[in-house]
Structures are given as C-alpha cells and as structure tokens.
Amino acid sequence: MKKRQIILIIICLALLGLTISTNYITTNLAQERVIKEQEQKDLEIGTYSESYSDEIPLMEEGAVAGANTEKEEETNKYNTSELSIIISSSIIFTLVIFYLIITKFGKYSLNSQINTTKKLIYTCTLLVLACSIIPTSFVIATDKKILNSYDTKSITEKSMAVIEVTKNENVSNLREISKEDNKSVIQVSNKAKYNATNLELTKESGKSTDFDSSTLYGLNSTFIAKEGSEIFLEDSKLSSSIFYSSAFFATGLETTATLNNVELSTDKDNSSALNASSEAKIDISNSEIKTKGNNSDAIKTLDANSLININDSTIITEGQNSTLLYSKGKIEALNIKGTSNSYLAIIEDRNSLELTNANLITNGQDKTINEYLGAFLIYSQESASASNNYTSAKLDIIDSIIEINKDSSWYDKTPLFYLTNTEANINITNTTLNYGSDILLKAVANSEYGDIGDNAASVTLTATDQELTGEIIVDSNSKVRLNLNNSTYEGKINVDNLSANVDVTFDYDSRWELTGDSYINILQITKTDYLRKNVRKYIRSNGYNVYYNSANNEWLEGRTYNLQGGGKLIPLES
After folding, report:
1. Number of folded domains in the chain?
2. Closest CA to 377 of 58, 53, 63
3. Each residue's pLDDT tens digit, 135-191
4. Which of helix, strand or coil describes residue 532?
5. In a domain, 346, yes or no
6. Among candidate residues 346, 208, 205, 328, the one with its CA nearest the CA of residue 267
7. In sequence order, which residues have a C-beta less than 8 Å from that of residue 125 and are 6 or more positions away?
8. Are residues 316 and 175 in the same domain?
9. Is there a contact between 327 and 349 (Cβ–Cβ < 8 Å)?
10. CA 336/CA 397 separation, integer angstroms
C-alpha cells in the first residue's frame, strides 16, 4: 500500500471518529437538556396550584394536565441546533464512507472513478441515497432515547407496580413502598380477587410522566384496581407523597372495591385520595380520607357510571380548591363528618350526590376571578344546549348539619349553593344550615363556565320539614323554582326583578317570611280557594311586597292582597 493511501485512510478514519464523537457529545448534551427541562417542569407543577389557585378554578385541572403533557412532548425532542449538528456529522460520516468505497480505500483517485457518464450517474444516485438514508437511520438508531423519552417501551408496556396481581390472592401484614416513575405499589388486574388486611403502602417518590393517565385512570397511584378486579381491603394504611398520585384508584367496568377501616392520604397537589372512573364501584366504611395539597379532592367519581358509597367515615381536605366530595358520577354518603378549606361538594354535569346524617364544615375559601362560589357548587363545563340529553344534576341533603366556619374570613361572603351552566334539583330535608353571607342560593351565568349566552342555571330547590333562610339570587337568563313542604322560608327572591322565571310553590303547612321585596312568576299553594281568602296567613311581609305575574296566576284574579306586616301581594302585567 502506498504512503498516499495510508495517509488518506488515516484522515478518513479521523473524520469518522470526529463525526461519531460529535454525534455522541451532542446526544448527551441534548439528553442533559431534556432532563433539566423535565425537572423544571416538575417543579412548576408542584408550585402551580399555590401560585395560581386564586385565579384559576378547580375545573381547569384537566386543562393544566393537558398543557403539561403537551409541554412534555415538546421537550423530549432535539432543538434545531442539536438536530443540525447530528445531521451534519452523519452526512460527513456518509461521504467519508462513500469516498472510501468509490476509491477502493484510496487505491484510485476519485476523479478517475467518476470520469464516465455511466459511473457519474451511478455515483450520484448512491450519494443521494446514502446521504438521505444513512444519516436518518444513524440518528434514529443511536438516539432513540431522546426521541422516545429515553425508552422505546410505552407506559402501557412497562411494569406498572412493585406488586402486580393478576390472579386471586389473600394477603396480610404487608409493608411496601414505590419510588419509581409511573409505578404504583400494588396493581390488581385481570379480574383477580384480592383480599388483604393490615397493609401499609406508600408511594414515596417517582413522578408521573402522563398526567391525564394519572388523573383519569390512576397511573402512579399507591393502589390501583382495574380490569374487573374485585378488592376487599381492611385495617390498612395507604398514602402518597408525590404530585398527581392518588391513594386508591378503581377504574374499569365491573371493577369493585370494598374498603373497611382504612386510612387514605395524599400530601401533594393534584392528588385526590379516593377515586372511581370508567364505571368502577367503591364501598368504603369506618375510614379516614385526607388530602393536604391544593386541587386535591378527598373523594371523586370521574364519569357518569362510577359510584362511591361512603359510610361512618371522616373526610378532611386542607388545600385550596380541594373538595370533600366531587361527583362526576354518583356519590352516596351516610354518617360522615368532614372539614374543608374549600368546597364541601361539587357536582359536575348532570350527576348526583346524596348526603344523609352528614356533619360538614368549610371555610369556603374558593372563588372564581369574578365572584365567590358556594359551599356547594353545581356546574357544567359544556354548553347548556349540549347537555339537553342528560338528566338534571341532583343533590340530596337529609338529616344533616352544614356549616361555613364563623371564624373564616369568607364566612360573610360565600353563598351556600352556587349554580351555573347547569340544570339541577336540590332536595333538603330536616337539615341545619349555618352560614353568614345571607345568600341561600345563587343561580347565574358565569363567564368562566360554558358558552356565554348559553350558560345560565335552572334549579328546583325543594325543602321538606325544613327551615330555610337567606336570599335567592337569579340573573336574567336563569330559572328557580322553590318548593316548600311543611317548611318555612325567611328571605327574598329575585329582588331586582331580573328573571321572569321564578316560581314559588308551598303547601298549607308552609310559610314565607319576607326580608325584602320579591318578584315571582308563579305562586302555587295547596287549597288555593282557601288561600285566596287567607293569603295573609301564609306570607308574612314585614312591610315588603311580593309582585306576581297576573297572567300566569289566574286563581289570584289579578287582585292585590294585604299581607301580615303591612306589605302586599301585587299583580304585575306580563
């Protein structure tokens, strides 16, 4: 071999080494960049609720998760300069290989090898193919970890828990923790029956990289039950200390869980304690459920066909925008106690919540940018017209005590019930209601929910064996119907005459004591003939008037009636 050939080969090998080294260094630098961006994103997630909870309502939680996912997809790619270096170095690598092949490792000159038209066409074709295929293959083959978030496996292909149960098991006295990303402590699937006592499970560390999957299906929770599994768990403690991680999550058709004497707790933001989604069913009793972070509900159903029954238990939430009971499905609660800084309960869309013998107290801290929301919030995110195929949302409160803390700075600001962009029935029976805002119910369109112009509220409030106090506020597009059964109402309704759709119905065992002028559409009372002669017996005016739509109350014959206390029942032209 001639000296010239040896020198050429050494130069080519040096160029090959340089391009490989350049590619390798650039890949590592890109990887370090992605890791730093991911860590910064995790930090932002951890501080998100604390920084913005006063401005962004709870219902935007899903949107935040979506935005974070989108950001994650963007950061797990090369930036322009990194990609340019990798492609350039790969092309140089290809050209060097091409040169060595054409010149037969320097034996012939390049000019002599491409001195014919046939060889030139052949050479150019090879060059184009080499420079387009080889660099691309080289980048994809060597740098998959960057382009695919460091791993060629999807989340669903990875091990999802420290302990994975796919067949029937009986377990007791187990202590276990999880510290890895996207990995729960226990996951039960494949229709397995899992009977367990005296477990102590902790999700100690290890972040979630798919926040939608965590929120909707329990990825990275302490305990996940799915795929029709059947869980019996008692005398146990389940806790999570990371963001976007639940203590217990049941998901999937025919998945059921029975929990007794368990402690469920989460410490960080966006981490609900007990969740059911995708038609799962949970029964829990004699337990304590607690969350400390913001946007961290204690109990939550996530779809219309999921159900949680809770009995004889205590519920506590300490963070902002953290609700005791959040129903996007069905929740039934019996003999429970609860304290919250935030909402007592939220019903989203046309779903339901039933409280019997509950004792709940809140500081009522939450509000939108525009106004204070209620201890109970009933709303929908979709437009009202899109919800017409649903039944009404339903809230039943029976034999309970509901309070807004007198020592809270929100005591005199927070309505008891707030409804927007929804249709709902609220039924209250023999319940003590203690609050300081003197706003019993507010039914209004709120620009932050639904489409403006199509986001009013329509609500029927029925009281049975009940004392009600406070104002009922209705805006121009909303509707309220008040039904009193063996009940008394001390308050005023629609004082600014904004709504033409306010109806009041009560039986002859009920009474209405006015605290201000009120405007109503329809007044209905049992035994109307008797009432017409004795209307003053049923409405005590305290000097205020009730104005009614004469066209929609023919039984009143368009007349004015004197009421107790000096006020009148006065007809209005429609």
Report:
1. 2
2. 58
3. 555 554 544 444 444 343 444 445 689 999 999 999 999 999 999 999 999 999 999
4. helix
5. no
6. 205
7. none
8. yes
9. no
10. 12
